[in-house]
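Hey L., structure's done. Input below.
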Amino acid sequence: MKVLYATDGSEPAIHAGKLIERIGDPDKIETTVITVSSFDMAVEEGRARYGHYSPMAADERATEIVDDAVEGLATGVVAAGDPAFEIVTTIEREWFDLTVVGGGSGTWLDQVLLGSTSTNLLHSSPSSVIVVRRAPEGHGRTSIIVCADGSRGAEFAVRTLA
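Output:
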């Protein structure tokens, strides 16, 4: 199974990576990590590093995030543009069976709801998406609830998890 791990380096995104490690069998999944160098990242990282907007600072930070996340996983990709659009485009172009992303990292509203990128992925992705807020702690078995209503999508969810 091909899994796309979309991360921006935030705490929920790091938890998403930990969930993949916890429930994924490395012999059965091929994981690719993606980070998108976006306008928002250029503003935030540029101010922190140079005191002004800097696409170069965003590219550097995106590369750092991918390099950190790839450790123990397969491959990494840095894209540039709108995060949701770039992630969905990558899913469509390379076809991933599952995308795992952290949710709710930006504003106070994102803490109550899902983040805008994760919400957009849930609505736009042609394949399954798992939105993670917090990975289970500890070692050993992890309990997962799968809700199934007999639909084709529910069957696919059960098969994907298995």
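The radius of gyration is 16 Å. DSSP finds seven helices and five strands in the chain.

-- N.
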